[in-house]
Amino acid sequence: MQTLQNSRRQVLLVNVVSFALLVFCANKAVAAAPVITAGPVSQTVSTGQKATFSVTASGSLLQYQWRKGGAPIPGATSSILTLTNIQSTDAFPYSVTVSNSQGAVTSDSANLVVINNNNPGGSSIFLSPQSRAVPQGTAVSWTVSYQAQRYTWRKNGAAIRDDWQGGYWSGVWPTTTSTYSIPLALAADAGSYDVVVEVAGTGQKITSTPSTLVVNVADFPAIFTQPAGGYIGSGQPLNLSVYATGSGTLLYQWYKDGVAIPGATSAYYSVNVAETSDAGTYEVLVSNNLGSTDSAQAFISVLPRPQLLPSTQSVAQGGSVSWSITTTNADRFTWRKNGSPLWTDYQYGGWSGVVGGTTSTYSINPALSTHAGTYDVVVHRVSENVDVVSTPSVLTVQVANEPYIVQQPSSTSSSTGSTVQFSVVATGAETLRYQWKRNGENIPSATSSSLSLSNVQSTDALKYSVVISNTYGAITSSVATLTLESTSPGATLTPSTRSVPEGVQVSWNYNAYNGSVYTWRKNGVTVWQDNKGSGWSGVLGWTSSTYTIPSTQLSNTGDYDVVVQPLSGGSSASSVSALTVVKLIKTALDTDGDGVTDDKETADGTDPNDPNSFVSVNKGLIAYYPFNANAKDESGNGNDGTVNGATLAPDRFGKNDGSYSFAAANGTLQNINLGNLSLFNFGTGDYSIVCWVKLDKDQNGRYILVKYAAVGGSGYGLGTTSGTQAYYFAKGSSDKWIGSGPSLNSGQWRQIAITHKNNVTLSYYLDGQLLQSVSGAIGGSISNNAPLLVGGLNIDGIQQFEGKIDDIRIYNRVLTATEITQLYEDNNLDGVKDSKASSLGYDPTLNLRPLIDFLKKEPVEGIYNQTQYEANRASGRSDVTTSPNTYDLYTTDQIYNMRMGGMVLSRSNNQLILNYEIQQSQDLQSWSTYKNQNLSISNAPTNKMFLRILPKQ
């Protein structure tokens, strides 16, 4: 915007050493002053080239003076300015003042940016552009194009930003382009810039050619951000600002309509509550010891306040009041009392008229003493997109001395035997007295603002009122009626709706006069009939029936009612009662508080009531995902996962549907969402993560397990790097990484374990062996609001793990090296190494502990166990003289000298079954052979017999 200098003021430069003084202001409009129709345009040129600026203006006998950084250029007095052999010292803002005898006008500044594209380095990587000089306040950026996985931008050799997968990333990873930008270059930004690129796949680092940035700072004041004009509404704040640079101390003076504003001498000017009188043209003069610069003009239009009518109101307590406001082109009215919003009248919130309408109304009935105050309404104008505050309206509420009822007692209905309460709210001078009445007669001792009736009967179904009095008078309330619910067919089934968790008992009781058959229904389908011949709950002709669900399940959700057939004939249905059964989120019980749930201790054979009975690897286990055909959490904590695209696959033992497979699927992310649970937000505490993985191919930067909300945020994740290596990161206010080491070997199952202790020590295990530990606090919490994901996430592009994942264990404590080795050798912790179980023909994923305990149990009625075998052998029994086969099961008390060859475990209906060849005897003398027979551990024969287990024939 061009500036008319002599329409506002003239400035004298008194002394180049002292600061500029504002001498006087002139506010006369000039009729024939010059007008600039086309000003100079910013441009970018290379060193040694030519730059040309031009101006077009109207008026007669025009004179020109070009300026560089606000200072006049000697001899530059034509409409065209030509600069030859451009150097970096020419990079400044340029402007021109056009004048004649009638006035002067100054153009907007045009920036000259100077580029030096000589290659001072010799590197094979070039920054674009190379060295340049710019005026202060100019936006600058550099771009480098090279296939890389990391770009480290530097200034004067010091790193200023990492552009890569784990930090700020400006593109898809890996990428070929990186950009570094400075939105507003200042003197402090001058220096030598380069970038170090890390080549994708090799880790080689190459430094680019340097690019020198020169920032030329004008000694004269230069304005980079002009004050902005526009519309504001009356009653709203007016805020103006300017951003300028120059040598020494900058001085500011704001003007309105050419007149200096007293006290407005900073870079900011504000009016807290603007009125129409604040509308006008604003500008600011910025000066220092060398000269001054005028800002562009900012035109402020202040919309007038709409009238809120009436402007004042006075009403007796209990009366009604109403306001209305009329304006144009409004789409929202926010009504306020004493500056606080009461109600918004707009398109989606109780709109009282057509959108774009002109009128809104606000009413109060009855008016109370608390309603007294100052009311106004904030109107949103559509065309200007601003809020305007109306004129205020003051409400006075006159409170009488005599009693006044604010809230009348309400009629109610209830059932026989229940408790009923009536109440009244009143105001008045002095202490109020109350007397409740029943059918017009005083109720003894009923002298408070509420009336409570217990064990109501049909004789209580009457009309109730209350008389309120003080020394100034008395008032009687309206009548409230008590109605007892009907007991005839068709009455209400209560409760009308309820929501309960799984596993609780719910009942409905229904009263119907002289009913003979009660047919209970769910969603219109009969679930039970209560009559003389089938489950009748009382004497025929009784008036009630009850339907009970002993233990609710999710499938019990539905609408229930009852159809009653009276003795007199016919039938009538009750109202519907809606039942919703919600899933119960169970918290596993830990009676002794040792960190191992009771069910786990029972499975481990330890005492759930003794905290010192056993330190199990299950201690501190908050989630366990064995992926046995589903993503359920089998830790007992119920933290089940949601599968998104991943498919079931064989596990490391060849068992079908024992793991999940993840693959790139046409740009669609496959993962398992374990949820954003507080259990997975470790903060600064201890934790451990153990899992098995199998890579389908070499891959970089793919997440196996990750909880990460956004680039640069806090979180943690386990992934792949360098093709086939594992890495793990934990990030708070700073981050820490661990990993690499041996290859995971595509196509092989590997166990990975991570532990983090005291938010300092991070350790990485592979196949039960410690490979690496790093120390150093990461600073702050690693918690965030993101879900814990298995198989990948989508932040700045899909990062999809390609392979199989199984047996994920998450702990809220640090596992020991011994425990991690134990999990590697015996994943299901049944005391039998997985390799030994496989060699014996057992499924390693099944728990063999019940079998071991079964064979070790003493005494077992009729079971030929180890104790009996030893006793019989010692006594010389001929059937046990030959030593049977021996198998080492790696248990605490090893089972030996038992013929167990050929035995196989399987699972049916969640019951462990033994499949083997056995011989049976009732006297240990005569044996009968049974081949390929099944015997349930939990359902052994009750008749006395002995079994000996023989190798499979």
What does this structure look like?
This protein starts with a strand and ends with a strand. It has 5 helices and 78 strands. It is flat, with a radius of gyration of 44 Å. Helix content is 4%, strand content 44%. The strands form 18 sheets. Strands 1, 5, 8, 9, 11, 12, 13, 14, 15, 16, 17, 18, 19 and 20 form a 14-stranded mixed beta sheet that branches. The longest helix has 9 residues, at 817-825. The protein is mainly β and 953 residues long.
Summarize the entry for a quick read.
This protein is mostly beta strands and 953 residues long. 4% of the residues lie in helices and 44% in strands.
What portion of the residues fall into strands of 2 or more residues? 35-45%
Number of E-state strands:
78
Distance between the termini: 103 Å
Task: Give the helix proportion (percent range).
Answer: under 10%
**What's the overall geometry?**
flat
Oligomer: single chain
Unreliable segments of 5+ consecutive residues? 1-31, 165-173, 347-357, 486-490, 532-542, 854-869, 877-917, 930-947, 949-953
Structural class assignment: mainly beta
Total number of helices: 5
Largest sheet entry: 14 strands, mixed
- Mean pLDDT, to the nearest integer, reads 76
Radius of gyration: 44 Å
